[in-house]
Specification:
Elements lengths: L2 H10 L8 E4 L6 E3 L5 E3 L2 E3 L2 H10 L15
Antiparallel strand pairs: 1-2, 3-4
The chain binds zinc ion.
The site of zinc ion has 7 residues, from loops.
Length: 73
């Protein structure tokens, strides 16, 4: 028997310890919990590629451009 698990269930109503909120995504502001896989850039934490990319575009590190013939190769 998993004593700890049973005791926690009685105490909190959940068999698993609640994941601890660690920080928020630097782009969407979503909550990021302990043991989640995140992306780090400088001092900021992001929940996924899309959020990191949005941040980089907002910060002017990445530009969105429609390709035309003037783009050198
Ligand atoms: Zn995010």
């Amino acid at each position: 028997m998993e004593h700890e698990s049973v005791e926690r269930t009685l105490r909190t109503g959940y068999p698993e310890a609640e994941a601890r909120l660690v920080t928020h995504c630097g782009s969407c502001g979503g909550e990021l919990y302990e043991k989640e896989e995140v992306l780090l850039h400088d001092e900021d934490v992001f929940c996924d590629n899309d959020c990191l990319l949005d941040h980089l575009i907002d910060a002017g590190h990445v530009w969105v451009k429609v390709l035309d013939e003037e783009v050198p190769v």
